[in-house]
Amino acid sequence: MTNNCTDAKRGVFLATVKANKQIGQRFYRIRLEFLGAAAEAFANSKPGQFAQLDLSGIALPAAKNIPDKLANTARRNILLRRPFSFVDITCEGDKTLVDILYCVVGPASLRMTTLSAGDSVSVIGPLGNGFWVPEGKKRVLLVAGGMGVGPLQHLAKVLTTDYPDIVVMAFAGARGAGDLPFEARLDEIAQQLGFSLPEFAKYGIESLVATDDGSAGWHGLVSDCLAEWLGQANFAGKDMIIYSCGPEAMLAKVADTARAKDIDCQVSMERMMACGIGVCQSCAVECKAGRPGKTIYKLCCKDGPVFDSREVVFRA
Amino acid sequence: MKDNVDISVDFAGIRLANPVFTASGTCGYADELADFMDINVLGAFITKSITAKLRKGNATPRIVETDSGMLNAIGLANIGVHKFVEEKLPVLEKLSPAVFVNVAGETVDDYVAVAERLASESAIAGFELNISCPNVAKGGIAFGTEPEQVAKITSAVKKAAGEKVLMVKLSPAVTDISVIARAAIEAGADALSLINTFTAMVIDIETRKPVLANKTGGLSGPAIKPIAVYLVNKVYNEVAKSTGIPILGMGGIMTASDAIQFIIAGASAVGVGTANFIEPGCAAKIVEGVKSYCARKKIANIKELIGTLQDS
Predict the structure, then answer these.
(1) Which of A235, B52, B101, B193 has the smallest set of CB atoms within 10 Å of its CB?
(2) Which residue of B has its CA nearest to A286?
(3) Burial A204-217 (b: 16+ CB within 10 A, else e)
């Protein structure tokens, strides 16, 4: 990334909700507006960084809108903040707009769906380290699993702006068509690489969709789709870099493929975390250290969430 | 009016600008919190547990949220006393709050080694003896549940601690916390801190496995606050008041009114723990809130508030 960082500091800020829109059955995209020091801090944040949202005081949806699978847990009090990466950041004058892609997985994200324009949310951020671009890369492959596509869309935008000479391609996978957080009619998406997903096509980036059940795009795991594509492609590994975000099992497979092809690979990891600022030590990621077999724990929030895939010991 | 209130306290001979501590393990080594609050507004700061040697800590998941609380099983992950002295102490030295180092280990010798190494460091006001960590296989809570063990480790560390104040952190998971408190005081403890977390478990009903890799973790947060207030009051009435030993009260403090409950119950000072994870600047707000309360109640000096629980 171009380093245009000022002294803008992370902090605890109040954001105003500008929009909170449902995408498909399970996904939402919320837009938060920041002013002043917060606007400056978030304007300088990088793809892969994240923020901690306080959702404890947000109302539950009406009972009829609570999904059956959350019927038993919906009413639980929320104590801790929840971490979210960014799908897009835009600056408008002295305002910074931060878009977050999320899906309803538990009582906190369920409450998040009831936020509407004009509401306030307490946000700590921007936190952690984002993706970085090593020297000499000519080709980037973005490999997303499910919700992991969020920060990779943000990265796609920054790459096309800051690195116009790099060729970028995106692979977006999920269990089924309903698990892909896109607005497009996924059953109409091409089975081959092409300018298919509007979310990437708007940056001039070709994309390929894969689903485990074959209900949209390529039939199979996105990690296998990547491996097959790389098997047919004829590019030098050292010229390429893979950026990946998604479930850990998928990241592990992508990392294996990258290592086999001698391609640099950065993965965005996820852990249960309390503070997000390096204090609680909850979000440990096991990493290789020095001699073979020796490992240390790094913190997902502070040392990551983006790691070089070669250093991570993925959880089985 | 608020400015005329004196909320400074004498805590086991240490003069503190105010009674608010940040609790061990919830404020790191101070450097991480610095972006979010002015550490210098605190009365005192307690480091995360320091052991003789570096500890990696437990496998993940290390935390899980519960109703109005959370379980943690970090496993005393820390950089070890030597690196602490080299890297972290120079930062802590510049702070105005009194610095307490939380000391942990697997054997009595481990605890003694940490205290001996730090006893001559002028940046440190005292030690908090962690004999109540529920998340390690050896040491931790094993030292904190038997009065004879408590006495043995307290007197051993007291000898090693030299001039430093020795505070002993008590577990709530005992039959009678006052028995443990008395054992610590008789063995030389200068102060008591209570409570540490409760051993607890959350089960994933799909897999029928515990959520935490360590199986169990320590329950903290607002869920434990009423129990903590009760235990502070019990120890104050049964042990601390008569011996003049100060109590650092903690357990689920999120706001100034929570803190004031502990002070009324008998705590000379209060520790803010889990709340630091949610509002990293909340300790500063609690300091101001305590001051405002005293002003509103026409309490000129916070000493007039400590242990003043009224009959119902």
Answers:
(1) A235
(2) B59
(3) ebbbbbbbbeebbb
